[in-house]
Amino acid sequence: MANLTLQNVKKSFGAVEVIPGVDLEITDGEFVVFVGPSGCGKSTLLRLIAGLEDVSDGDIRIDNASVVDVPAADRGVAMVFQSYALYPHMTVRENLSFGLENIRMDKAEINRRVSDAARLLQIEQLLERRPKQLSGGQRQRVAIGRAITRDPKIFLFDEPLSNLDAELRVLMRVEITKLRERLGNTMIYVTHDQIEAMTMADKIVVLRKGIIEQVGAPLELYNHPRNLFVAGFIGSPRMNFVEGKVSAVAPGQVVFEAPGLPPLTLPGALAQSMEAAPATLGIRPEDFVVSRDAGAGWPVTVGVAEQYGANSYLHCTLAGEVPILVHEAGQSLARRGDVLYLAPRENHWHLFGAGGAAIERQA
Amino acid sequence: MSARVQLASAAGAILSLPARLIEPAMSGIQRGVGIKRMPWVFLLPNLVAVILFALLPVFINVFYSMSGSDRLFPWDRPFVGGANYQSLLDCTNYLDPSTCSRDLFWRALGNTMVFVPVQVICMIAIALLTAICLNRDIVGRGFFRGIFFFPVMLSPVVVALTWQWILQRNGALNGLISAAGLTPVNWLIFPNTAFFWSVFVTVWAHMGFYTIILLAGLQAIPRDVYEAAKMDSASPWRVFTRITLPLLKPVMLVVFILAVIRSVQTFDELYVLTGGGPGSATMLMVQYIYEVGFAAQPRNFGLAAAASLFLGLALLIFTGIQMRISRGGNND
């Protein structure tokens, strides 16, 4: 188990700067998820920690010792690859023991570790099979098992569930969370799936273009996104955005105006200086109060009403063709062409300034 | 109809024209032979080619090997039964060619049995080494790939003449040796050096082909397997023996079979380079067959045919064993 510190870590491939400088602190036993769109540098960052890539500048410290010059195998980290990267010609047992044989570990100890890992992951009956005789989920377990036998300080997962079907993905998500509770190691997990990030992480690191946009607990990111990018990325379905301006700030309420729409009064407090500033209003689909009474907010026209049974999603448009997605609990009665009136729930709205940064609300 | 739809239907009409032209003929044939025999109709063109150019010559060869005289046409040749085989196999001591009535056959056979394993092992080892080097991120990788493949495109006679120019008594190699103050060697005059250079030149001429196949095999091994091995503390030697070689096994088997067959067939390079000499030190089976059947007077087609059937049989047995092994390998 270990602390991990990234100090101004930079990585360039030739002239392309993939990671322009990352500082991050991960404490012992934390489950940290790197999340971001493809090409945001999250996998590169993981590979830098693993030692599969060399840093261009900066320092990586595990338990306060710099590891940038330490070979991958000696860093005390183990990695689970996206493609599993199992050795196709070896049996599951050989896959699990190969790394231990390489460091000339005692045979009895190897056997003990292999059977412990196999028992933990319930793959004991598969030990004599080869990877191609296994299903995707079983391969995934073997890949995790290979990491476990090495007894690393830090586990690294590179999009480990992306090759599994949706059902199995949910199952493995739970398995990994349980495993993590049992092992207690520091784990770093890379994904582009924000649901995985939300459900598994102690701490989410949102990355964009190699820059950390925000670090925090899942609900902290959900409730208080620091900027438009994080607001749009965390939460599914994504937050609705409407561009406009803050037309008036009064004690306890804010008036937001968007072109072609009636002014919307938002209960909450803002600094007086925000008045007349251009802003983007962000409201999550689940944060609307839906009404059929005119005047109870912005009018929207329902385009498509998706019925999930337990939930309904209404794909609507505001005046000016601004798309708005509305979540309704239960089975919605709305039909295509219906006009509904929307207002945000109290304190469940977000304002972002011209640069995309969140505008702080006042208590 | 829009222009696009019209264009598409016109293209469809043109493309289906051949099918529509042969359709009446094919349905006529199908009515004649019945639908069950139609596969044979489709196979016929290739079947005819294989029978005409591969199977028929084998049978003619069998007939020639059982007939005598130097007459070319089968109907002029008297049937002699197994006499040619008897003549080939007529030895007092099989380990000593000079006790055989066809001693040159046994010398060529002995040479081939030394040449093939040595040449194939050298070739695969060097080709593998080259492929591994070319698989790395080295400067000028494309250039080196071209360089190593280039000899494959040369005519065997060009290869042989080039190396003859290098290796002859006043050749380029001896020029360098003299310039370095050493004593020149008459490379192609001594049996051992001639044999060495025979192996060397044939390896040089053909290794590029196998290098490319092995390189493709190496590139088919996923990169992340190597990364996993790196995380698994595997030393470069362990990576080579436990990851690269096992994963390259299917490709290696193909390369091995091709290399052996080609090595057994070696003729043109050595015929030009050494002429099978000195004496018969570098004479291989195919050259023996050529000498007996075409160069010697009178031409002994029968004996040549018997020797080539002997060679064909040996290759057939070898390929059978290889295929069995490779099938076992694939079941792993």
How many E strands of chain A?
Answer: 20
CA radius of gyration of chain A is 25 Å
Helicity of chain B, in percent? over 70%
Structural class of chain B: mainly alpha
CATH topology descriptor of the largest domain in chain A: Rossmann fold
General description of the model:
The complex is a heterodimer of chains A (363) and B (332). In chain A, strand 11 and strand 12 (253-257) form a beta hairpin. Chain A folds into 2 domains: 4-227, Rossmann fold; 240-359, Nucleic acid-binding proteins (OB fold (Dihydrolipoamide Acetyltransferase, E2P)), CATH 2.40.50. Chain A is of the alpha+beta class. In chain A, 24% of the residues lie in helices and 34% in strands. In chain A, strands 6-7-8-3-9-10 form a 6-stranded mixed β-sheet, sandwiched between helices. By secondary structure, chain B is mainly α. Chain B folds into 2 domains: 1-33; 93-331, MetI-like (MetI-like fold), CATH 1.10.3720.10. Helices cover 72% and strands 0% of the residues of chain B. Chain B is built from 14 helices and no strands. Chain B has helices spanning 3-15, 17-33, 38-65, 83-89, 103-134, 141-149, 156-167, 172-179, 191-219, 223-231, 236-264, 268-273, 285-295, 301-330. In chain B, helix 5 (103-134) packs across helix 9 and helix 6 crosses helix 9. At the A-B interface, strand 6 and helix 2 of A face helix 10 and helix 11 of B.
